[in-house]
Amino acid sequence: MKGLELAKAYYDFYGKSMIHEKFPEYEDRIAVGLVGHGSECFGFDDEISTDHDFGPAFCMWLMDEDYEQIGSQLSYEYEKIPKDFNGFTGRIQSTHGGGRVGVFSISNFYYSLIGSEDIPERNKDWVWIPESRLSAATNGEVFRDDLGEFSRIRNGLLSFYPEDVRIKKIVSRAAAMAQSGQYNYARCMRRMETVAAHMALSEFVKNTISMVFLLNKKYTPFYKWMHKGLYELEILWETAPMLKILCEQSSQKEVWNKAPSKYNPYELNLMDKNVEMIEEICGMVVEELKRQGISTLSDRFLENHTQHMMDKISDIDMKRLQILEG
Fold first, then answer.
1. φ, ψ dihedrals at 251, nearest 5°
2. What burial class does residue 287 get, using C-beta atoms within 10 Å of its C-beta: 0-12 exposed, 13-18 middle, 19+ buried?
3. How far is the C-alpha of 44 from the C-alpha of 225, rounded, in Å?
4. Euclidean distance between CA atoms 326 and 324, whole angstroms
5. H or E stretch including 61?
């Protein structure tokens, strides 16, 4: 049984009756679900996930005034619910895994994840929230929310970034992909700085995944689940197996011994399979940028698209950011 399914069953079996019997006057004011940190909130949990921060549990979210009135008592009653359920032992909590389930005020729950108690109002408030935090604030499932306040904020976040913010982030990812993958990887290999080359590849992979999520208008999850999450997207999900190949290919060190002795930054060493794969992925991204009307250029070198895309941003605060910021 997956963690979300377990949480829903645990709430249905124990939580509903506890709330109904102990807090009848607040029953329609308590939002319930499982959202936040943890692989089970993304539906990515497996047998390995069960060794920590996993087990029968759910979240309850209250308005600030209700939290002041019944927060402590609700937490007390929640802790009294049997910990073992449906063949699963009680939740095993890691050193830093506390505070993920139980009772929260709505405002504090969102603030703990995104640094804001409500939907950010300004573009500059949106731009610095880490994507993984927004992903954690909008994953999982809400089982009940009669009042609708928790879901109001959730749905506002799920509507995704304002377009100027999305474009600025796409510009940043394009610049980083070009710098790390299309430019610095080859320079590092030319110098036989293989550690630096692997770091460049890592930066390329990370920024490519973020780019694909942005093009899908989805938030990129925590790095451990970034690649797995690609397979659930509609646009450019095909980059997922390509990035897997890129990460698993053997060292291309030998082919650089055959490179021309005179360095030319514009000459691609396509004998290096990583270079070939990087260029193919960047070409796919360029075609999607064109399809979405974010860029009209056909140049495969992503850095050449950055200023063209920046010109589509109307918010002066976004325009003032450096190319790699966002």
1. -55, 140
2. middle
3. 8
4. 7
5. strand 59-62
Report the C-alpha gap between 192 and 109 in whole angstroms.
48
Task: Please name every residue paired with 60 in a beta bridge, in sequence order, or none if there are none.
Answer: 32, 103
Checking if the pLDDT of 2 tops 70, the result is yes
Residue 263 has which token pair?
């360095």
Tell me if 269 sits within 8 A of 252, measured CB to CB: no
What is the CA angle 218-323-269, rounded to 5?
90
CA 120 to chain centroid: 18
Alpha carbon distance 216, 229 (integer Å): 12
Q: Are 91 and 48 in contact (CB under 8 A)?
A: no
- How many C-beta atoms lie closer than 10 Å to residue 147's C-beta? 18
Q: What's the distance, Cα to Cα, between the start and end of the chain in Å?
A: 38
* Res. 265 pLDDT band, cuts 50 70 90: low
- 75: phi then psi, degrees, rounded to nearest 5: -60, -40
In this prediction, residue 88 carries a pLDDT of 79
pLDDT digits (tens, 9 = 90+) for 105-142: 999 999 999 999 999 999 999 999 999 999 999 999 99
What's the Cα-to-Cα distance from 276 to each of 183, 198, 242, 245, 262, rounded to whole Å? Answer: 13, 16, 11, 12, 20
DSSP per-residue string spanning 241-281: HHHHHHHHSPP-HHHHTTS-SS--TTS--TTSHHHHHHHHH
Angle, helices 273-291/194-215, rounded to nearest 10 degrees? 20
Length of the chain: 326
Q: What gap in Å lies between CA 150 and CA 127, rounded to an integer?
A: 22
Report domain extents, the chain.
3-158, 163-319
Distance of CA 268 to the CA centre of its chain: 32
